[in-house]
Amino acid sequence: MPGTILHIMNYAASYRGNFMYSLVSLDGKLRADGVKSIYLFTREAKIQSSMSWIGEMQRQGEDVYFLAEKRKQDADLIRWLMKEKKVKVIHTHFITMKQYLAVYQATLRSEIPVLMHMHNHSRKAENLFKSFLRRALYRKCIMVACSQSVYHSLERDYPKNEKYTIDNGVDFSRLDVYETITGKAFGLEKSQGVLLIFGFDFYRKGVDLALKAMKQLRDRGYHYSLLVALSSNFEQVEDSIVNILGEMPSWIKVISARSDVATLYNFADVFLAPSREEGLPYSVVEAAYSSCSVVMSNISAQKNLKIPYGYWFENENVEDLADKILKARTEHSKKLENWDKVKQFMKKNYSLETWSEQVRMLYKKIQQGE
C-alpha cells in the first residue's frame, strides 16, 4: 500500500493527548508498509506551533502544514498535497462543516477516498433541508465511528454512507510514568478524598453536575476536595463555578492540565465523568487504567464501557451522582488491592495496538480492492 495518508484535523490542544499518540502508533505501522503520514492542522494550531508539540513535530522533520481558514486557499493547498505527496487516503478528524467545504472542493473530481472520523455523535439536523444538505455534502465520505454508540447515530443521519466502527484505543505505556505528589502541590485542605474532573467543556462534561453533587456531599459532612483540570478558559470556568455555588469554595481548586496526565489520575481517589455527550472518552479509559475509581454518567457512549471499579449514575441525576461518588470513594481500597489485574484487563480491551491495526487494514480495504 504505497503512498501517503493525509490527516486533516481541527486539533490544537496544549498537549499531544491520546489522540495524537494514536496517530503516532498508526504512523509506525504504516511506515512498515512504506506509507508516510502528513498532517494538516488548523490556523489556530499554527499560532501556537512554535511553542508546542506541533513545533516539535516540525523540528523532527514531520510533514506538517496549516490551513488558512479561507476555503479557496485551503482547497488549493489540499489539492497540491494530493498531487505532490501522492496522497492515497484523506482522513479527517474533528473538522467543522466550514473546514470540510475546502476538502469537498479539493476532492470534487478526485477518486481519493475521504474518511471522516467521527469522535462524537452525529447531531440530528434541525430540519429536512439541513439534513438533505449534510447528506449531499458528505455523500462521498466513508465514516468511521469511534464507538458503537456513535455508529448508531451515523446510521440514523447518513444511512447511505459506507461506515465502520473502530473503538478508540489508549497508549497505556505513557500512563505508567507519573510523579507521586501530595495535596500541598495544589494547596488542598485536609480532606477525606480527592476527586478529579476535566472541565474544558463545562456543560458537555457535566462539571455543573459534579459541583452540585459535591456540595450535597459536603453538606452531608463528607469533606471531599475537587480538582478541575483545564488547559484554557480558566476565567470562564471560575465564573461558572461562582455562578453555581455563589462563591469559589476552598475545597475546589482549578488547576492546569499536565502532559503527564497519569500524575493527576493517580493522585485522585475518584475520577468524575458526568458527561452529557461523548463519543468514546479517552479520559475514562485512561482513568480506569490508573489507581483512581471512576464515576460516570450512563449515557450511551459510557454505559457499555468495560470499566473495573466503575460506577454509573443516572444522567442529570445529581443525588444519584453524589451517592455513586460516596460509594466509589468508600470502595476505592478494593481497586488498589487489585490494580495489577485491572491494568491487564484494560490493556486487553482497549489497546492502541488494536486500534492502529484496524485503521491500517481499513485503509487497505478501501483502496481499489487492496
Task: Please summarize what this structure is.
The chain has 370 residues and is an alpha/beta fold. It has helices at residues 17-32, 43-47, 53-59, 71-84, 97-106, 128-137, 148-157, 207-219, 234-245, 262-267, 282-289, 300-303, 318-330, 332-337, 339-349, 352-366, and strands spanning 3-9, 35-41, 63-66, 87-93, 114-118, 142-145, 163-165, 193-198, 224-230, 252-256, 270-273, 293-297, 310-313.
Task: Give an overview in words.
Strand 9 (224-230), helix 9 and strand 10 form a beta-alpha-beta unit. The radius of gyration is 22 Å and the shape is globular. The strands form 2 sheets. It has a 7-stranded parallel β-sheet, sandwiched between helices. The protein has 370 residues and is α/β, with parallel strands linked by helices. It has helices at residues 17-32, 43-47, 53-59, 71-84, 97-106, 128-137, 148-157, 207-219, 234-245, 262-267, 282-289, 300-303, 318-330, 332-337, 339-349, 352-366; strands at 3-9, 35-41, 63-66, 87-93, 114-118, 142-145, 163-165, 193-198, 224-230, 252-256, 270-273, 293-297, 310-313.
